[in-house]
Each structure stands twice: as C-alpha cells, then as structure tokens.
Design a protein that fits this description.
globular; five-stranded antiparallel beta sheet; mainly beta
Amino acid sequence: MARPSAPERIALGALAVQSWKNGAGLTREIAVSRGDIGPIGFDWRISLAEVERDAPFSAYPGIDRCITLLRGAGMRLQSADGALDHALDTRLQPFHFSGDLSLQASLRDGACQDFNVMTRRGVWRADVGAVHDAGELQDADATLLLAVEGSWTIAAGATDHDAAWDLPADHALLWRSPRGALRATPSSPHRAALLVVRLCQHRS
C-alpha cells in the first residue's frame, strides 16, 4: 500500500480574519474546495468563527452544515418557524443541520468559538468527530485533523519507518485526496482532543 502524501499544514493563528458584515463576529477560513456550480461557489468549506454577540446565521440553500463548539459557554440556535431549536453548549459535540434554514444565534454566557464544516448537498458529505485517545483513523476522499488540545503524532502505517507528522495544538493537517491508513497518538493521555473531519464524495 502506498504511503499517504504529505499533508498541508495549517496554523490557526496565521489565518486571515474576516469580520462579519453585521459586526457580530469573526471568521477564519481553514480550508475550502472551490466549486463552479451555483452562487455559493464551493463544494466544501471548513472555518472557525468567533461569535461575539447575538446574531442571525445566514441561510445557505443546498448546503449541509455541521457546527462544533470549541470554547465558551455556547449558544442557542433557533429557526424562525420553530423547526430547529438547539442548545449548542457541549464542547466537541458536532451538530448537523440544514443550511437551508435561517437561524438566530443567542449566546448563553459571553463570546464563543465554533468550528464549522459546510458541504454541497448530494455531492459531498462530512463526518465530524472528536477523539481523545490513540487510535486508527478511517480513510476519506479528503481529511482534516485539528488538534484542539495537546500535541499529537499522526503516523502512516504501523512501523517506525513509516511517515509521521507532529501536530501541535491549534494546528491542522489537511489531505485533499485519499491518504490511506493513519494512526493518531496524543503526547499526553490526560489532556488531548483531536477533531477529525472526513469528507466523502457521493457516488452514483
């Protein structure tokens, strides 16, 4: 089996900051796959958001969304028609919802930081999860690993001779194509959290 190609390295602190038009928060785009269909113009997009006050969340028709609380007390997400009412208040617990909905975000106790994944419905889907212990990572068409807490070693294969990459906290590794078997190992088992985003294309 071929070794995975070297991933892109992303330092969260080096990402450009984009202020929201309504002044309620900031966004840092981590990674994007551009598409040429429709007005949104991407197949998938991964970003960080700093929500600083209550604000509306714009609708993204045809997009599936996943949001994960990283820091802060979180917020309540509500749609105007009452179809969605969700308390995003548990860290590292992904919440999937339809981007077709316009939502109101109400902060629970001050600003919060969240991790966002958006995929074009029917073309891509996202599997988002947090791991805290050493283990194997399933393959995908594209993969992003974000070290939320602690440092990690991401290794290809099962021997000391295979490729390996150090992943410190607040850094990410991105593979834009299938990368084969990987194993994630935290430097300390007492304080470790790794967000794993597996992006898979729908195939007919």
